[in-house]
Amino acid sequence: MAYTNNDFKKGQPRWCPGCGDHFFLASLHKAMAEIGVDPWNTAVISGIGCSSRLPHYMATYGMNTIHGRAAAIATGCKVANPDLIVWQVSGDGDGLAIGGNHFIHANRRNINLNMILLNNRIYGLTKGQYSPTSPRGFVSKSSPYGTVEDPFRPAELCFGARGHFFARAVATDAPGTIEVLKAAYNHKGASVCEILQNCVIFNNGTHDAVYDKVGRAKNAIYLKHGEKMLFGENNEYGIVQEGFGVKAVKLGEDGYTEADVLVHDAKCEDNTLQLKLAEMEWPVALGVIRDVEAPTYDDSVTAQIEEVKAKKKYHNFAELLETNDIWTVQ
Length: 330
Description:
The protein is an alpha/beta fold and 330 residues long. The protein is built from ten helices and eleven strands.
């Protein structure tokens, strides 16, 4: 059956005008319509926060759970019903602070979840405290003299937990967001999509360098598996290898030519270069950065259950009773 965006829409979103969540929600509706999975075979699970309102605006199964526990609930949902397509939505506070432990273990176990991390580098719903992704020195209501902490890098956490899929998009870039969402769906295993979004009230402008089309043309690179890593308004820049890392160069300067530019390999099991790409401050890497297949937790659990059942004399409670001595009380 062919679906449209409207088949996945529900209710009236209640976010501040201009909030990045509006942009992402529209892209998620469109991506789901293009993917074509029935709404009744889809579940959207969230925690607590501005972004976690999202299940209320989806005409699918959904659950707005408790703070930081979206990945835990989504895991149980997927393991109990392996045929259900599960999307988990968290903010940077909900997903990486109180929910950080669940985030890393969902990646480590490689549960077949589509994990969305909406990163605005602030706690919005609780009115402007710094979050695990806020930069050092960030001034907020909970850090009036600037934070004295270094932030988490979502890609670094994902890769460190042996994650097999990581992608990044900007909330205002609908085509780019839809592309990574569809890639996440097609990946079998835990997929993490970091969505750079703006909080107009408490952290306005945090992603300004790439938040509009002009900025992305100058300051972002769209990575495509199997293609040269070129970027710039006229593809005048490229990514080359430098030692064990990477750097951006301008073609024609210092002897660099297109032949020196690396080809993106999202399928490489060794994540060394993929992590270097994800951590670049300029240009900001967008698109699918890592996409490697590996056994999934839910498939392994299902297979183990079937293997054990095959060796048992009983397969349900009635058969279990009949394996023991049975007598009748008159």
